[in-house]
Amino acid sequence: EAGVTQFPSHSVIEKGQTVTLRCDPISGHDNLYWYRRVMGKEIKFLLHFVKESKQDESGMPNNRFLAERTGGTYSTLKVQPAELEDSGVYFCASSPRGASSSGGYEQYFGPGTRLTVT
Amino acid sequence: GDSVTQMEGPVTLSEEAFLTINCTYTATGYPSLFWYVQYPGEGLQLLLKATKADDKGSNKGFEATYRKETTSFHLEKGSVQVSDSAVYFCALRIMMNYGGSQGNLIFGKGTKLSVKP
After folding, report:
1. Per-residue model confidence as pLDDT tens digits over A12-21
2. How far apart, in Å, do the first and last CA atoms of chain A sit?
3. N or C: which end of chain A has fewer CB within 10 A?
């Protein structure tokens, strides 16, 4: 079974440009999460999809970030226009839908996209 | 708000040394607790978890016990190997009202471990 994949693995852009990150979750996983780790800091939650619906987007930093998940499969995260403080590693994770008695299902993470804004 | 505090590294140990990485948390609900590991060039992998007080999670020789009285979930391993070199993240997740515990994870800053032969 293929794991969570993310593309690109690394992106270097200039301030003011636009970048789109892509995440392909594990097939059949309804839950999809985006997280971000700014250098030296904790990994922070950005948003959570259940299928194509945004369940929780409380972690999105501002309206320069737009996430979509058309058809409930892959997801994109667009940053427009990018700022220097957007640099970091963006992780995507997925998990099956439904509760389990053991505290919920494991979230499976992708390798991350390292975004550098210069 | 809910948060996780873990000891900051880097931590450098010799092979076969004992490892402890401290993790404490603050939570308003009833969290599940996790340790994730990120090996060089890879994504985060779940190392172990505990879902209620006094539970002990274990995997690959690593252990952590959910201590509600001290709000801690310290990671330990009796004898580390070079292959354990990685970044370790402590995390919690609060039980959500919708569909069970499918909420987001709250992470600590990560601890980089280097094990020398």
Report:
1. 999 999 999 9
2. 37
3. N
* Pairwise CA distance, residues B10 & B6, whole Å: 12
- Mean pLDDT, rounded, of chain B: 91
| Closest by Cα among A9, A14, A17 to A118 | A14
- Taking contacts as CB-CB distances below 8 angstroms, the residues of chain B near A56 are 103-104
Per DSSP, chain A holds a count of helices (H) and strands (E) of 0, 11
By the 8 A CB rule, do B44 and B38 touch? yes
Contact A111 B43 (CB under 8 A): yes
Q: What residues of A are in contact with residue B43 (Cβ under 8 Å)?
A: 3-4, 91, 109-112
Reported confidence tier of residue A92, pLDDT bands at 50, 70, 90: very high
- What is the tens place of the pLDDT at every residue in A27-75? 999 999 999 999 878 999 999 999 999 999 999 999 999 999 988 899 9
Q: Which residue in the set A3, A42, A48 is minimally distant from B109, CB to CB?
A: A42
